[in-house]
Amino acid sequence: MPSKTLITNAKAIVTCNETDTVYYDSDILIEGPCIIAIGKNLDTTGCTLIDAKGKYVYPGLVNTHHHFFQTFVRNLMTIDYPNMLVVDWLDKIYPIFQEIDSEVIYYSSLVAMADLLKHGCTCAFDHQYCYTQKTGKSAVDRQMEASSLLGIRYHAGRGCNTLPKSEGSTIPDKMLETTKEFLDDCNRLIGLYHDSNPFSMSQIVVAPCQPINSYPETFIESVALARDKKVRLHTHLGEGENPIMEARWGMRTLQWAQKIGFVGEDVWLAHGWELNREEYKVMAQTKTGLSHCPAPAVLGGFPILDIPSMQREGMNISLGCDGSATNDSSNLLDSLRMAYLMQAYNSKSRGGSPSPYDMLKIATINGAKTLGRTDIGSLQVGMGADLFMVDTLPLEMAGTLHDPKTLLARTGVTGPVYLTMVNGKVVYSEGHLTGIDEGKLAEEAEAVCNRVLRSEFPSVFPSMQH
Prior knowledge:
Elements: E1 4-14, E2 22-31, E3 34-39, E4 47-51, E5 55-59, E6 61-63, H1 86-97, H2 102-118, E7 121-128, H3 139-150, E8 153-158, H4 179-193, E9 202-206, H5 216-229, E10 232-237, H6 242-249, H7 253-260, E11 267-271, H8 277-286, E12 289-292, H9 294-300, H10 307-313, E13 317-319, H11 332-345, H12 356-363, H13 365-370, E14 387-391, H14 407-411, E15 419-422, E16 425-429, E17 432-433, H15 438-454
Parallel strand pairs: 1-4, 1-5, 6-7, 7-8, 8-9, 9-10, 10-11, 11-12, 12-13
Antiparallel strand pairs: 1-2, 2-3, 5-14, 14-15, 15-16, 16-17
Helix pairs in contact: 2-3, 2-15, 4-5, 11-12
């Protein structure tokens, strides 16, 4: 019989449900992975107790776009994304990416997942397109090892690039695959890891990297495979590639994607700052989702998404960290705060902006919808017990506590949370990831970064000698 856990006496429980309910001074009863009751003075018999006195409880954040493999190329002022054109940045960063091996994939994924968990993210999608001669086909397998160790709910996007540089791609030949290689490995991974059952901990997404870096048949056959296997589709779109697509195919990228069927309720796209108002309508009508990644947009000086107009058309928008090389962290609470401030900046010209609570729902229930999940994203009976807690008792929280729904984005609560629970299990509490030797893993990760990247690219990585 599944074990029971009772979270007791929470100061507030922000549910993000359809009625935006907030429970005060209440309990959450969890059996196995599932919430079975929320209310006051619930029966403690046979329960493991978690004291939530003074804590605000929120649904776990859902990250809908990331590149975990990039966590070892952060904090590099020698390849400074804000001060370069995207094409120049790509030319400098890809020679590093092509040397990544299986150990880098494993440890960089651990680093990103740990950062996510410590900041309230319980379910993460990663767009893994870094397949080199050194990684072989093991990248997603290594990520599944990492997610299992830490206990995060993980959706793996199996990406690829198939078009050579000689035909207009930005990808080095060492990082190319054939369409057949890609599809064969998607099939393998779906068979091994894709679980479509309620409360599943792992799923696979067919996710060719971006239209300008693959042959059309890669995308066309991805659609056929995903629809046959009933898995979701993802790619980058609307992030500056439209002039190339118009020159190459005589149409904008979304029109090209619509023509081949790479739109729909089972599809979501990353970025979209290049989308126009007519394309908002197409996205809404086809029920194609969009992952908003605020950090790279700010770093790159790209247009701020017109989320109010997108929402008026009926688009589903979620939140992503994006790659560590264009974010420098895997902190989705920080992205939540940044996204809110970005929208507020344009509020007068756009007739308003999403509220801090609207942004929280974008980062929770909208993210779950984007990934096709109906079992997470809000705190209510029957949903998975994915949640995090914020301690309201420290002095710096005084004066903010009258509105728990808006607290996070509005006041900038972006540091490590008090506790994170995934699927009914505590995976992070009071500053510690549970069940692992974090110090040992950190030492191993640094050693891998030194061996594979710092020693190979001394001109890129500053000397650590003093």
